[in-house]
Amino acid sequence: MIHLRIDKIKEKWTSENIKLSPPATPESIKEAEEILGFQFPDDCKEFYLRLDGFADWDWTQNMFSIWPLERILKEYHNENNKSFIVFADYLINSHHMGFVKGKKGVFKNFNENYELIAETFTEAILLIISDSDILY
Known about the structure:
Shape: globular
Largest sheet: 5 strands, antiparallel
Oligomer: single chain
Radius of gyration: 14 Å
Strand content: 15-25%
Number of helices: 5
Structural class: alpha+beta
């Protein structure tokens, strides 16, 4: 399994002037999981314990935004479809990336159609960093 170098990712995004949220707490992750009725994969939890997404709806130069837990919960609350847990978007909600309850992997969503893009959260973050064509 690939291991994320979260410290290096934080350095990269900070050097690109992306506003980063402070780390989440174990309690906030557990609370989010209870509200969502979904358990985040371990690599996702590890990431959020070091970096709770982007602050102020910020995004990469390629227009990807990693959502903090607060936004994940807010958007989930407003969605009719409770089976898709979004953690990132492209081009200000053009499409989303996230987890589908009951399925393994990370999916992108176009109008309720889910396409597997990565086997793990770690792979999905690396796809975003490398600006992989599979994301579009």
